[in-house]
Amino acid sequence: METIQITTEFIKLEAFLKLANLVGSGGEAKMRIQDGQVKLNGEVCTQRGKKLRPGDTVLFQNKELQVQ
């Protein structure tokens, strides 16, 4: 599992996918999230504005990342 460091209290799911270089743009992140391709803490998440905090895990395209 890879960890991605954030410097704020939280980060939105859409921005996290871009920060982790998992998508090329915000538009792509939006589509992938709304299509149910992203899991947050083991459950499909379709809310692109969902706030992620340290300790949360994201699964996307067989890559597991943890917010730190």
Tell me the layout of helices and strands.
Layout: E1 2-4, E2 11-12, H1 13-19, H2 26-34, E3 38-40, E4 43-44, E5 51-52, E6 57-60, E7 63-67
Parallel strand pairs: 1-7
Antiparallel strand pairs: 2-5, 3-4, 3-6, 6-7
Helix pairs in contact: 1-2
Please characterize this protein's 3D structure:
The structure is a single chain. With 68 residues, this protein is α+β, with helices and mostly antiparallel strands. 24% of the residues lie in helices and 31% in strands. It has helices at residues 13-19, 26-34; strands at 2-4, 11-12, 38-40, 43-44, 51-52, 57-60, 63-67. The strands form two sheets. The chain has a five-stranded mixed sheet, with no helix packed on it. The protein has a two-stranded antiparallel ribbon with strand order 2-5. A hairpin with a 2-residue loop joins β6 (57-60) and β7 (63-67). The longest helix has 9 residues, at 26-34. The N and C termini lie close together (12 Å). 22% of the residues are buried. The mean pLDDT is 96.
Report the principal-axis shape.
Answer: globular
Helix content: 10-25%
Report the structural category.
alpha+beta
Report the end-to-end length measured between terminal Cα atoms.
12 Å
Main sheet characteristics: 5 strands, mixed
> On the 0-100 scale, what is the average pLDDT?
96
Order of helices and strands: EEHHEEEEE
Tally of helical runs: 2
Query: Largest sheet, order of strands side by side?
Result: 1-7-6-3-4
Strand content: 25-35%
Which regions contain 5 or more consecutive residues with pLDDT less than 50?
none
Please count the beta strands (DSSP E, at least 2 residues each): 7
Task: Report the C-alpha radius of gyration, rounded.
Answer: 10 Å
